[in-house]
Amino acid sequence: MEPLASQIRPKKLEEFVGQKHLVGEGKPLNIAIEKGHIFSFILWGPPGVGKTTLAKIYAGSLKADFYELSGVSSGKEDIKKVIESGNILSRQRVLFLDEIHRLNKAQQDFLLPYVERGDIVLIGATTENPSFEIISPLLSRCRVFTLESLSSSDMALIIARTGVKMEKKAKEWLISMAGGDARQAITVIENASKLYKKITVQSLKDTIQNKFLRFDKKGEEHYNTISAFIKSMRASQPDAALYYLARMVEAGEDPKFIARRMVIFASEDVGMAQPTALVVANEVFRAVETIGLPEAQINLAHGVVYLSVAAKNRNAYDAYFAAMEDVKKYGNLPIPMEIRNASTKLMKNLGYGKNYEKYSNKSFLPEKLIDKKYYKKN
Q1: CATH number for position 303
Q2: Are residues 32 and 106 in the same domain?
Q3: Residue 354, SS3?
Q4: Do 47 and 181 contact (CB within 8 A), yes or no?
Q5: Does 64 fall in a domain?
Q6: Stretch 293-319: mean pLDDT, rounded?
């Protein structure tokens, strides 16, 4: 049976809820859909805010053949099949790539010439910043539209469309729980209506807690697992860290998200105890970016063991945030004259750079903080 979210998906722009800054009268996507403008674009925003729906409505406005692939499970061969399908001269083809940020660099490079020549119209959907996740040549050939989380009133309209009756408090609780993610709200409603005759706050909570139901990776289990992963490496427990790594990979977590957390961990927790940890973590991220899964899980495992067994030292991390506290507390304190930049004659006459010694033992901190020691060596 077709999922409820698919059943109630808007087919035309007049039915679409939210994103008025893009689809309201006179706004860019509204104009493009009404006039049938042909161009490639990226939809960037949180889960469940209408990226797929907008892509389908746009393709419909072009009367184009619509192909949908996922960056998680699709590769060059899948993209090639779309490119080789049909007659290029007959109908426009729209390729919708959900989670486009999950394509590695080689896959994005492969896609580039077909977008460049207009063989396909590309619509990418991503929850990650395209500036970091999409290669520059491909990004330069696409417009980027930023979508926002749905408001409470938007969510109420979408919930009403499901036709499922529920108590007012249940609706309010669901809107709050979903956090602007319509797909998650609809999924909960669909499952709750199958399990319970009456939809109440408690029945919704029980539905979410049902162990047989899986929810979006941005939910609680996502944060619990990444937390366990980091804390296992911090405690120098490679076995536990590898287990939580395997759980995330098996669940379909974005490997670049995992690798980014490892880069952060290398400076935050290993720090000065083993400075090469940052080099290793960065190389793991690069390997993940260029190779992709499934092979990149080996690179991740290598990095996880290295970071887990490495000595730990958070002094640089702690020192920086101690300094940040003083910045917030005292604002822009006067910089000592001897280390100011004397770039003009007037500045030199005023004493900028006077008596500056390259290797002075005198503190270069502002006078108010002259005796502060942020970084403490072990």
Answers
A1: 1.20.272.10
A2: yes
A3: coil
A4: yes
A5: yes
A6: 94
